[in-house]
C-alpha cells in the first residue's frame, strides 16, 4: 500500500511532534522490466553513491526504490533540532530500520521523519491536526480527515498512562497517510482493527509500568506534598519528557512498531487489489440492431403492445423468464419477437420466431407460437413464463374453443390451413394495419418480484419517448446494456472469487511470524520472511472476512452484508439480483466456451 | 485607566453612528440596533467577544480557566493534563457577561500559515498572555513580543492583558520588582519595534488567592460596553444610600462586572467573594432544590455584620448577578432607604436588559419578513 504510517506524540515541551514513521520504497517498475536488474542503467548511475555507501557498510541494506541521498540530507536539515527524549525515536543521523521484501522488490524503512521533504511537511501538518485540532468523540479513537492537497489521513488517537506526565497520561496518535481516499476508507475496518491491537499492546505495557511505579510511591500525593514543601520547585515534579521505550518498559518497542507497521503496509496492500476483470470483448454481447428485421422496431412494438403489457413482457424477459407470444399470423409474431431483440444482450436473447410446437425455456426464452398451440400443463404449473395472446377481434371465443382440442402432433397441418385462411401482411404498414384486427391480451403470467430491475424503467422511458429516432434509441439501449454487462462481469468475478476463497481460507500471516535477524549489525535490520508474505492469497472481497469461528447465523449475516457491499459497489440494488444472475448464467457459458476456443 | 477610556471612545466612534441608544455600541451584547444593517453579525457565532488565553506551556492557562470558571480548587490544578488543542468554552451566565474563552496549548505556534489566524484572532476580544513568574521569564517575554505584534497585525482591535502569574511563591518585594521588570522590558521591546501604540496592561495573579478573580474581572469589564452606565448607576446608588463600596458580581464566577468609581482594595473584594461563597453554600445545603444550577433566586439576600462596625449586604439583581455592598453599621440603620434605592437600581438594570430584549424581538420578527432579503452590511441607517 502506498501509505506512510507514523506515530505522533503531544510532547509536553514541544507540542505535537512526529516521533516515528514507516514508509515503503519500491523500485520503479519500468526500469526492472526493461532491463535486467544487474545491468540496468539506473544501477550504473548509482554506482558512485554505492561506493560511498559501501564505506559506511550500508549500501546493500536499502535495496529497492532508493531515493537520492541529497533529498534525504535535505529532509534532515529541515527537521527541527530541538527534540527531547519524548519526541525522538532514533538519534540524529541514524536511519532506523530497514526491511527488504525481495519478492515484491520493496524496502520498508522506518525513521523518525519521512525521508522526503514534501512528505515531511504533509506528515507534520497531519500530526498537528490529529493531536491538536481534530476531536474524536470520546477522545480516544480513529478519525478520518484530509483532502487531495494535504493527503488523506486516518488517525487513531490514544493515551498512555504515565506517572510523570501532567494529568498522568500522554497523548499519542498513529496516523496512516495516503493519497488514495477510496482505498484508505475501504481499508478502514482492517487498518483500525490492527492499529487497535498495536495500541492495546502499548497501553497494556504502559499501564503495567504505571502500576509498578505507583505501587512504590503515590505520585498524586507526592506532587501535592512537593508544592507545600517548596513552591519554587513544584513545576519540576511533573511534565518531564519521557521516551516511549521507558514508558512501556521495552527497549525494542521501535523494532516492534517497525515490524507491525511494515506488516500493516504489506498486508493492507495485498488485501484490496484493483484488477481488470477479464472477459470476452463487450461487442460480442451487444445485440446488433442496425437492421429493422421483420419491419417492426421496438418503438412500434411498444405502441402496439401498450405500456402495461410491454412492462410485464420486458420485466419477464430481463430476469430470464420465458416469454411466449401466441397468434395466428407468423409474420406479426416474428416481427414482434425480432423487435424486442435490442432489449437484451446477445447471449441472453434466444428466440424462436414462430414454432409449430412448444419449446422449453432451456433452449429459448422468447417463443412465438401459433394461437392453436397449447402449452403443456407441467410448464404452466412452473409459473415462470409469460404468455401474450394476439386474439383476432370478434372471434375471441372461437380461438379458445378451437385451441383446446388440438394437440401438438398435427400442428403442421393446421398451420397450413390457417395460412391459407389469412393474407399475410407484407410490410410495416401492413403489419400495423393488420394488428388493429387483434386484441392483445396477457393471458398467463408467473409471479414477478415486487420491484423490477432498475434497467427496466430506463428502457421504458427511452422507448416511450417519441422524440428519439430509432438509431438514437438503439445507441441508448446498447449503452444501458453495455453498462450492465460490465456490472455483470464484476458480479461474476466476485462470485467466483468467493467460491475459491471458501475453498482455502488462508490469511496473511500476522507480524509475529516475521523473523528478526541480523541484530548484530551496526544498523538493526529486520528481515521479513517475505516469501510467506508475497504468496498470501488475493482477497478481493470487499470487506475483510474472518473465516471460521463464526456461527452459522453470523456467517449468514456476514454474507448478506458482503452482498450488500458488492451491490453498492457496482451501483445496483437488491432487486437487480435476478437480472444479474440471469445475465451472469448465460455469460459464464458463453465466456467459458470462448475461453476454450481461445 | 486613561487609555481605556480612549479606546472606548474609539470604539464608540466606530460603532456609534448606527446606534439609537447613544451609549451602547451595538455589536456586543445588545445586538444590532438596526436589524437591516447588521443581520450577518448576529448569526456569526464568533461575534461574542473572545478572551484568548495564551502563554508558554505550563504557565497556568488551563488552571486559570478551571479555577475561575469551573470552581476547581487550586490544588487540583496540579493534576491537569497539558492542553493539546484549543479548548473553547462559552461563558454565557448572565445576560451581561457573554463571551468565549479560548485556552491555547502553549506548545503550538498558532501563527503558522496552516492555521487560520484571521479566525482565531479576529473579532472583538482580549488576549490574555500568561507569564510564569516563578520561572525564567525571558523566553516568555520573547513569545509575548511576537504574539502581540502578530496578533496586532491580524486584528488591531484586540486588547492585550499580561498576567504575571504564580506570584504566590514570591515575596512582596520580588513581586513588585518582577512586575516592574516585565513591564519595562515588554514595553521597551514594543517601542523598539515601533509599536508604542499597543497598550499592555499588567496584573499580578495567583490562583491561590483572589488576585486571579480580580484580574479577570478587569479583563471582562473591558469587554462590557455598557460599563460606564453601570458604574454610573452604582455611583448614584451608593452616594444616595450611604454605602462605602458596592460590587456587581457575576455569582457563578465571582468576577465583578462593575463597581463604583472609588478605588478597589483587595481586602474588600475578597470579603465580598467570601460572602458570595457563604450565601451559595448555605443555600446549597438548606435551600430548596428546584433543579436550578445555582441556588440563587430573586429572594436571595444576606446581611453579615462584622465586629469592626461594618456590614456586608448582598442582594440579588438578576438570576446570575448579585449586588454586594460594604457599609458602616450606622448607615445600615436606614435599611428601608437602602432597600428602596436598591429596588430603583435593580429596575434601572432591568431596563438595560429590556432594551436588548426588545431589540432581539424586533430582530426575530423582522427576520421572517422578506424585506431583509436585500440587507446590506454597511448600508445607511433607516
Automatic annotation (TrEMBL), chain A:
Q: In the UniProt record, does the keyword Nucleus occur?
A: yes
Q: Write out the entry's keywords from A to Z.
A: Cell projection, Cytoplasm, Cytoskeleton, GTPase activation, Lysosome, Membrane, Nucleus
Task: Spell out the subcellular localization from the entry.
Answer: Cell projection, Cilium; Cytoplasm, Cytoskeleton, Microtubule organizing center, Centrosome; Cytoplasm, Cytoskeleton, Spindle; Cytoplasm, Cytosol
List the GO terms this entry assigns under cellular component, sorted alphabetically.
centrosome; cilium; cytosol; lysosomal membrane; nucleus; spindle
Every copy of the UDENN FLCN/SMCR8-type domain together lies at 88-598
Q: Output one GO MF annotation.
A: GTPase activator activity
Q: Which Pfam family is one of those matched by this entry?
A: Folliculin_C
What are the BP-aspect GO terms?
negative regulation of transcription by RNA polymerase II; positive regulation of TORC1 signaling
- Where is the major localization of this protein? other
Q: Highest taxon of the source?
A: Eukaryota
Which protein family is it in? Belongs to the folliculin family.
- Record's protein name: Folliculin
Source organism per entry reads Scylla paramamosain
Q: What is the lineage of its organism?
A: Eukaryota, Metazoa, Ecdysozoa, Arthropoda, Crustacea
Automatic annotation (TrEMBL), chain B:
Per UniProt, the keywords (alphabetical) are: Cytoplasm, GTP-binding, Hydrolase, Lysosome, Membrane, Nucleotide-binding, Nucleus
- Catalyzes what? GTP + H2O = GDP + phosphate + H(+)
Return the similarity comment: Belongs to the GTR/RAG GTP-binding protein family.
Keyword Phosphoprotein in annotation? no
UniProt KW Nucleotide-binding keyword: yes
Q: Give the primary localization class.
A: cytoplasm
A Gene Ontology cellular-component term? nucleoplasm
SUPFAM superfamilies from the entry?
P-loop containing nucleoside triphosphate hydrolases
Q: Which GO terms describe its biological process?
A: cellular response to amino acid starvation; negative regulation of autophagy; positive regulation of TORC1 signaling; response to amino acid
Where is the protein localized? Cytoplasm; Lysosome membrane; Nucleus
Q: What name appears for this protein in its UniProt entry? A: Ras-related GTP-binding protein C
InterPro entries registered for this protein in UniProt: Gtr1_RagA, P-loop_NTPase, RagC/D
Which GO terms of the molecular function aspect are on file?
Answer: enzyme binding; GDP binding; GTP binding; GTPase activity; molecular adaptor activity; protein dimerization activity
Q: Name one Pfam family in it.
A: Gtr1_RagA
Query: Which species is listed as the source?
Result: Scylla paramamosain (Mud crab)
Amino acid at each position: 500500500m502506498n501509505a506512510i504510517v507514523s506515530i505522533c506524540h503531544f510532547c509536553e515541551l514541544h507540542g505535537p511532534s512526529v516521533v516515528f514513521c514507516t514508509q515503503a520504497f519500491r523500485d520503479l517498475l519500468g526500469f526492472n522490466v526493461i532491463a535486467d536488474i544487474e545491468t540496468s542503467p539506473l544501477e550504473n548511475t548509482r554506482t558512485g553513491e554505492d561506493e560511498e555507501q559501501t564505506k559506511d557498510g550500508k549500501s546493500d541494506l536499502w535495496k529497492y526504490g532508493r531515493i537520492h541521498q541529497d533529498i534525504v540530507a535535505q529532509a534532515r536539515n529541515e527537521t527541527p533540532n530541538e527534540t527531547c527524549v519524548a519526541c525522538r525515536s532514533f538519534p540524529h543521523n541514524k536511519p532506523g530500520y530497514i526491511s527488504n521484501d525481495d519478492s515484491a522488490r520493496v524496502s520498508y524503512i522506518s525513521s523518525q521523519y519521512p525521508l522526503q521533504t514534501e512528505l515531511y511537511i504533509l506528515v507534520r501538518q497531519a500530526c498537528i491536526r490529529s493531536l491538536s485540532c481534530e476531536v474524536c468523540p470520546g477522545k480516544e479513537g480513529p478519525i478520518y480527515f484530509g483532502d487531495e492537497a494535504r493527503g488523506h489521513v486516518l488517525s487513531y488517537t490514544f493515551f498512555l498512562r504515565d506517572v510523570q506526565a501532567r494529568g498522568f497520561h500522554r497523548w499519542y496518535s498513529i496516523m496512516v497517510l495516503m493519497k488514495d481516499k477510496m482505498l484508505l476508507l475501504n481499508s478502514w475496518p482492517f487498518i483500525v482493527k490492527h492499529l487497535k491491537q498495536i495500541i492495546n499492546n502499548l497501553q497494556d505495557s504502559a499501564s503495567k509500568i504505571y502500576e509498578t511505579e505507583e505501587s512504590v510511591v503515590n505520585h498524586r500525593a507526592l506532587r501535592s506534598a512537593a508544592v507545600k514543601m517548596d513552591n519554587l520547585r513544584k513545576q519540576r515534579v511533573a511534565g518531564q519528557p519521557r521516551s516511549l521505550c521507558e514508558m512501556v518498559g521495552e527497549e525494542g518497542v521501535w523494532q516492534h512498531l517497525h515490524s507491525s507497521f511494515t506488516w500493516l503496509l504489506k498486508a493492507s496492500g495485498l488485501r484490496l487489489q484493483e484488477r481488470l476483470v477479464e472477459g470476452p470483448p463487450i461487442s460480442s454481447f451487444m445485440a446488433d440492431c442496425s437492421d429493422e428485421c421483420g419491419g417492426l422496431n421496438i418503438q412500434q412494438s411498444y405502441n402496439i403492445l401498450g405500456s402495461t403489457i410491454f412492462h410485464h413482457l420486458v420485466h419477464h424477459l430481463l430476469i430470464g423468464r420465458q416469454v411466449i407470444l401466441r397468434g395466428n399470423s407468423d409474420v406479426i409474431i416474428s416481427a414482434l419477437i425480432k423487435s424486442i431483440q435490442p432489449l437484451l444482450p446477445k447471449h441472453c436473447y434466444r428466440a424462436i420466431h414462430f414454432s409449430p410446437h412448444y419449446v422449453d425455456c432451456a433452449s429459448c426464452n422468447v417463443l412465438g407460437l401459433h394461437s392453436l398451440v397449447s402449452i403443456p400443463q407441467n410448464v404452466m404449473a412452473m409459473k415462470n413464463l409469460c404468455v401474450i395472446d394476439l386474439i383476432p377481434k370478434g372471434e375471441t371465443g372461437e380461438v379458445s374453443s378451437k385451441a383446446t382440442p388440438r394437440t401438438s402432433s398435427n400442428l403442421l397441418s393446421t398451420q397450413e390451413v390457417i395460412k391459407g385462411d389469412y393474407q399475410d401482411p407484407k410490410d410495416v404498414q401492413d403489419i400495423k394495419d393488420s394488428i388493429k384486427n387483434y386484441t392483445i391480451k396477457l393471458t398467463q403470467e408467473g409471479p414477478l418480484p415486487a420491484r423490477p430491475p432498475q434497467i427496466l424503467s430506463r428502457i421504458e422511458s427511452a422507448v416511450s419517448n417519441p422524440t428519439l429516432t430509432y438509431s438514437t434509441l438503439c445507441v441508448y439501449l446498447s449503452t444501458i446494456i453495455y453498462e450492465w454487462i460490465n456490472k455483470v462481469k464484476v458480479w461474476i468475478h466476485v462470485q467466483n472469487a468467493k467460491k475459491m476463497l471458501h475453498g482455502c481460507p488462508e490469511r496473511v500471516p500476522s507480524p509475529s511470524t516475521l523473523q528478526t535477524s541480523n541484530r548484530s549489525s551496526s544498523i538493526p535490520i529486520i528481515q521479513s520472511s517475505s516469501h510467506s508474505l508475497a504468496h498470501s492469497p488475493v482477497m478481493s472481497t470487499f470487506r475483510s472476512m474472518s473465516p471460521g469461528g463464526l456461527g452459522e447465523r453470523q456467517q449468514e449475516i456476514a454474507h448478506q452484508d458482503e452482498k450488500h457491499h458488492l451491490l453498492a459497489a457496482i451501483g445496483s440494488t437488491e432487486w437487480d439480483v435476478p437480472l444479474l444472475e440471469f445475465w451472469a448464467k448465460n455469460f459464464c457459458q458463453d465466456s467459458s466456451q470462448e475461453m476454450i476456443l481461445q | 485607566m486613561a487609555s481605556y477610556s480612549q479606546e472606548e471612545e474609539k470604539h464608540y466612534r466606530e460603532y456609534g453612528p448606527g446606534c439609537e441608544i447613544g451609549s451602547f455600541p451595538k455589536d456586543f451584547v445588545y445586538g444590532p440596533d438596526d436589524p437591516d444593517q447588521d443581520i450577518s453579525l448576529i448569526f456569526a457565532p464568533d461575534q461574542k467577544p473572545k478572551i484568548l488565553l495564551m502563554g508558554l506551556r505550563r504557565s497556568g492557562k488551563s488552571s486559570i480557566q478551571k479555577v475561575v470558571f469551573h470552581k476547581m480548587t487550586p490544588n487540583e490544578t496540579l493534576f491537569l493534563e497539558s492542553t493539546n488543542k484549543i479548548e473553547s468554552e462559552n461563558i454565557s451566565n448572565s445576560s451581561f457577561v457573554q463571551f468565549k474563552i479560548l485556552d491555547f496549548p502553549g506548545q503550538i505556534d498558532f501563527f503558522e500559515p496552516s492555521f487560520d489566524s484571521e479566525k482565531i484572532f479576529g473579532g472583538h476580544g482580549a488576549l490574555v498572555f500568561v507569564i510564569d513568574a516563578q520561572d525564567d521569564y525571558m523566553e516568555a517575554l520573547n513569545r509575548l513580543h511576537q504574539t502581540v505584534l502578530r496578533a496586532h497585525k491580524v486584528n488591531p482591535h484586540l486588547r492585550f492583558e499580561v498576567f504575571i502569574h504564580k506570584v504566590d511563591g514570591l515575596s512582596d518585594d520580588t513581586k513588585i520588582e518582577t512586575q516592574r521588570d516585565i513591564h519595562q522590558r515588554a514595553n521597551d521591546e514594543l517601542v523598539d519595534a515601533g509599536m508604542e501604540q499597543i497598550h499592555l496592561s499588567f496584573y499580578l495573579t495567583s490562583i491561590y488567592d483572589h488576585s486571579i478573580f480580580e484580574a479577570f474581572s478587569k479583563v471582562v469589564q473591558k469587554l462590557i460596553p455598557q460599563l460606564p452606565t453601570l458604574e454610573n448607576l452604582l455611583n448614584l446608588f451608593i452616594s444616595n444610600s450611604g454605602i462605602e463600596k458596592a460590587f456587581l458580581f457575576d455569582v457563578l464566577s465571582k468576577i465583578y462586572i462593575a463597581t463604583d468609581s472609588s478605588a478597589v482594595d483587595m481586602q474588600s473584594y475578597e470579603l465580598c467573594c467570601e460572602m458570595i461563597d457563604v450565601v451559595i453554600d448555605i443555600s446549597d445545603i438548606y435551600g430548596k432544590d428546584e433543579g436550578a444550577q445555582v441556588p440563587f433566586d430573586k429572594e436571595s439576600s444576606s446581611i453579615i455584620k462584622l465586629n469592626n462596625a461594618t456590614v456586608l449586604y448582598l442582594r440579588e439583581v438578576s438570576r446570575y448577578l448579585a449586588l454586594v455592598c460594604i457599609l458602616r453599621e450606622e448607615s445600615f440603620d436606614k435599611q428601608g432607604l437602602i432597600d428602596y434605592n436598591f429596588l430603583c437600581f435593580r429596575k434601572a438594570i432591568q431596563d438595560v436588559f429590556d432594551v436588548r430584549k426588545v431589540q432581539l424581538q424586533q430582530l426575530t420578527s423582522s427576520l421572517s419578513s422578506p424585506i431583509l432579503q436585500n440587507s446590506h452590511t454597511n448600508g445607511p441607517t433607516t
